[in-house]
Amino acid sequence: MKKNSSNPFFEYWDEAPHEWSSLLSEKIKSGVCDLSVPILWGVHEQSPGMSDFSKQSRLRIEKLLSISQELGVRVEIILGFPFHPQCFPAWISEESLREDIPHVFWQGVPPYFAKLSVPSPRASKVKEGFLSFLDDLIPILSLYIAPEGPITK
């Protein structure tokens, strides 16, 4: 199934890095010049406190931002806990303090009135882990903030 090139969201971790340039070029041709890029904690941190932004090729944030800059694509970074199954690392899934959220928002497909239990952002293990993740990520992102770089938000 071909992905929608006019969709402004770019889930880089699901794409082969050698295809990023051509995928972004397709988005530009379809009229997208503002890209929304979620950076998911669960994608980048397989072990507590061990963030990976460059070792695995599919996680190379700087490469993605450099390509975006070369192509003239503006980038909005999405941080936090967007409704995506990989927003939390697997190692945090056993957190006992949980929140119930509507299932339709998490999976994007109803069953109506269903709910899903996820780790609570209020739990100290979640809060401390996520803040540590941000401590690792923010210095990288700060190098690519407009006007010198592609990050606009």
Structural account:
This protein has 153 residues and is an alpha+beta fold. Helices cover 32% and strands 16% of the residues. The chain has helices spanning 20-29, 41-44, 61-71, 103-107, 124-142; strands spanning 34-38, 45-47, 50-51, 74-78, 98-102, 115-119. Helix 1 packs parallel to helix 3. The longest helix has 19 residues, at 124-142. The mean pLDDT is 84.
Features:
153 residues; alpha+beta; two-stranded parallel sheet; two-stranded antiparallel ribbon; 32% helix; globular
Number of strands: 6
Give the helices and strands as they follow along the chain: HEHEEHEEHEH
Over the alpha carbons, how many angstroms does the gyration radius reach? 16 Å
Q: Determine the mean pLDDT.
A: 84
Distance between the termini: 31 Å
Helical percentage: 25-40%
Question: Which secondary structure elements does this structure contain, and how are they paired or packed?
Answer:
Layout: H1 20-29, E1 34-38, H2 41-44, E2 45-47, E3 50-51, H3 61-71, E4 74-78, E5 98-102, H4 103-107, E6 115-119, H5 124-142
Parallel strand pairs: 1-4
Antiparallel strand pairs: 2-3, 5-6
Write a brief structural summary:
The protein has 153 residues and is of the alpha+beta class.
